[in-house]
Amino acid sequence: MTTRVLVVDDQVLIRAGVAALLRAAPGMEVVGEASDGDEAVSLAAEHRPDVILMDIRMPGTSGITATERILEASGEPRPRILVLTTFDLDEYVYAALRAGACGFLLKDTGPQRLLAAVAAVAEGDTLFSPSVTRRLIEAYAPAVDQSAPPPETLEALTGREVDVLRLVAGGLSNPEIAETLVISESTVKTHLNRTMAKLDLGSRAQAVVLAYESGLVTPGGGHAGGTHPAGAGA
Prior knowledge:
- Mean pLDDT is 85; it is low at 222-234.
- The protein has a 5-stranded parallel β-sheet with strand order 2-1-3-4-5, sandwiched between helices.
- The chain is 47% helix and 12% strand.
- It has helices at 12-24, 37-47, 63-73, 91-99, 111-122, 130-140, 159-169, 174-181, 185-198, 204-213, and strands at residues 3-8, 28-34, 51-55, 80-85, 103-106.
- By secondary structure, the protein is α/β, with parallel strands linked by helices.
- α7 crosses α10 and α8 packs across α9 (185-198).
- The protein is built from 10 helices and 5 strands, in the order βαβαβαβαβαααααα.
- Keywords: DNA-binding, Phosphoprotein, Transcription, Transcription regulation.
- Residues 150-215 form the HTH luxR-type domain.
């Protein structure tokens, strides 16, 4: 199947170069090019791309705001947003993760890595590695009062859904979660999909951020109110 991509960057040479690379790749179709966040929102609504390569820092409407607006307005399936950035660890990348982006690429990423990343997120993968996610959260997540009761947002979840969310936030893969909870991998996926639907989350990375910001899991490996480990491999 063809992956339909929208390219967003205020620098014309970068935008044109990325678009040309995608057009030359088999299975890729560039449905539009946007030079700012407002144009990105408009073109996303018009063309409904599968993947959006989104610059973060642009004049006017930023890539973060554009990401939020696009995901809020999108029906299912939502586009997969892959942000383009100069620095891998800064508050903009954290904000993109929080807004629902599925991953990020540095602007000096090589052509094959970029094409592989677009293909990966189109298939539903997330390109925020557990280690990078943990470092971003430790640097930029707001402090949480651990003595406070769990937020109401988590009250919609069943106990097993909370377990799965906690282990996802700890960096475990679906097979590792299945082994830890002694359930099948398909059951893990079902619990995670229901959790994301209940909490209106667009990506696995966004679920990780919510788990930390709610105090379900804490930076440094601790977690609130549970019996399962925060997770190896993070």
